[in-house]
From TrEMBL:
It is found in: Cell membrane. Belongs to the G-protein coupled receptor 1 family. Keywords: Cell membrane, G-protein coupled receptor, Membrane, Olfaction, Receptor, Sensory transduction, Transducer, Transmembrane, Transmembrane helix. This is Olfactory receptor.
Amino acid sequence: MDLTNCSRVEKFILLGFPHVWGINVSFFAVVLLLYMLSIAGNGLIIVIVRTNSQLQKPMYFFLSNLSFLEIWYTTTVVPKMLANLLLVKTTICFYCCMAQLYFHFFFGVTEFFILTVMSFDRYLAICNPLRYSTIMTFGVCLQLALAAWLGGFFSILFQIIMVLRLPFCGSNIVNHFYCDIGPLLKIAGGDTRWIEALIFLIAVAVIVSSLLLTVISYIFIISTILRIPSSSGQKKAFSTCASHLTVVTILYGAVLFVYLRPSATNSSFRHNKAISVLNTVVTPVLNPFIYTIRNNEVKEALWKLFQRKALTLANE
């Protein structure tokens, strides 16, 4: 698009939340605490998966990928959000905004693909246990993880290039606490209908297809579990996928509300902000707790790690 007759804005103002000092400071403390818990919890999962030989399995390899994604997904948004809660002038440079927009969607889309791969892994483990070890080799796991990361990288790249070419010449006020696609298109000049249509199609392709594959996997998983004769066997089989199913339900519920709409610019930004806080701040904190509380192998590995640290400190 021709920008010769347009002086493009150099900075955006993130409108964020109503600036009331006492409330902002309290909100800052809560978000900071949640962010630190998210980094610590997801980082701890990565450490115990890497250091515990009993967790050298495909399920935990993908779980460590998910935790790594969660760390960066929340980091693309929360540090700037925390800074803006304490500042009156909440600005972000143009290219910083575009970078935040890209990486937010890159990590988010990759997370969908990783969760889909995890559901396929659980399907093989429960429905084809005898062939599981021969199918899900380390090479196959690496290829699936790489495919998920590359899928996330390229699925959003073309849309960001199109947004970069838009003439942002008028308002520079983004009605959000980070650079999200809907508020940016709302203030962009030129015709944004093609970009909105492409974003909607990508959202359908990524969210609906990954959700459909996950649902199909769990239909087979549940039907297989119900055929197990003993109740203890059913409980053990279901416990291996209950954590993943919980995370999938939370994530898809939030994202379907925000992004799966034909027009991004006509969304209710007030509601989107609330859902975005849940998606970018609260959910990354919940995931480590969900996987540790409901997974005996992770709890045992965590307990052994704490025991080793306690022995090390006692011997010093």
